[in-house]
Design a protein that fits this description.
Layout (H helix, E strand, L loop, with lengths): L1 H5 L3 H13 L3 H7 L4 H17 L2
Length: about 55
């Protein structure tokens, strides 16, 4: 319902929420057009995987 009101897909909204919860500072970069939602999401996922690998 929210995604429909915003005019974005539900998967895009899920990614935005994930970004906000994990690296809220990326939201400003999204607003400025420096990063896309997909780039931000993938970067955060990479960082999370690296954290899991490191002892």
């Amino acid at each position: 319902m929210v995604s429909k009101e915003m005019g974005i897909s539900s998967s895009q909204l899920r990614r935005l929420v994930y970004i906000y919860k994990n690296r809220s500072e990326f939201i400003e970069l999204l607003d400025k057009g420096i990063l896309t939602v997909n780039q931000s999401y993938l970067q955060i996922q990479r960082e999370e995987k690296e954290k899991q690998i490191q002892p």
